[in-house]
Design goal:
- This protein is of the alpha+beta class and 145 residues long.
- The chain has one domain: Immunoglobulin-like (Sandwich).
- The chain has two helices and nine strands, in the order H-E-E-E-E-E-E-H-E-E-E.
- The strands form two sheets. Strands 1, 3, 5, 6 and 7 form a five-stranded mixed sheet that branches. Strands 2-9-8-4 form a four-stranded mixed sheet, with no helix packed on it.
- The longest helix is centred in the N-terminal third of the chain and has 22 residues.
């Protein structure tokens, strides 16, 4: 009887863990600077991210200029080190190789709400300097199925 209860508890615990792991899945599509001007296909209901290289220490960063009503923003943009930085950190067993003023990625996460075609655009600028033109612009079209 006790063994059967232990077995039941283990099965229940594994089921709950599997459920939560499936809910915490990451983005299904990652859109990068190489996708600028392209059309990207995304499935309705999926999370996707736009990952743009920035040098935030200079005061410049990517600002969302416009977004389709077919998508919703999930949280606030995050920052991630570049792949090159991660490789350097791994070589030196975790020593911090991130340079002040160096490059990072700004990561914007979205969920595709409805089927259709839409667009997201960004500007690379200093947010407090409203009169200055953006140094770069970025636009990607979305095809949500």
């Amino acid at each position: 009887m006790v063994d059967m209860m232990k077995y039941g508890i283990c099965v229940a615990a594994v089921s709950v863990l599997a459920f939560f792991m499936s809910c915490a899945s990451g983005p299904s599509v990652t859109i990068t600077e190489g996708d600028n001007g392209k059309t990207i296909a995304v499935s309705r209901g999926d999370l996707f991210e736009v990952r743009l290289k920035a040098q935030l220490g200079t005061g410049y960063g990517w600002q969302q200029k416009s977004a389709s009503d077919l998508i919703e923003v999930k949280g606030t943009p995050t920052q991630a080190a570049t792949v090159e930085m991660a490789k350097e950190m791994d070589k030196d067993k975790g020593k911090d190789k991130v340079e002040t003023g160096g490059f990072e990625f700004q990561v914007f996460t979205y969920r595709a709400l409805k089927s259709g075609r839409g667009e997201i655009s960004f500007e690379y600028r200093q947010p407090w300097n409203k009169r200055a033109r953006a140094l770069k612009t970025y636009r990607v079209s979305l095809e949500i199925r």
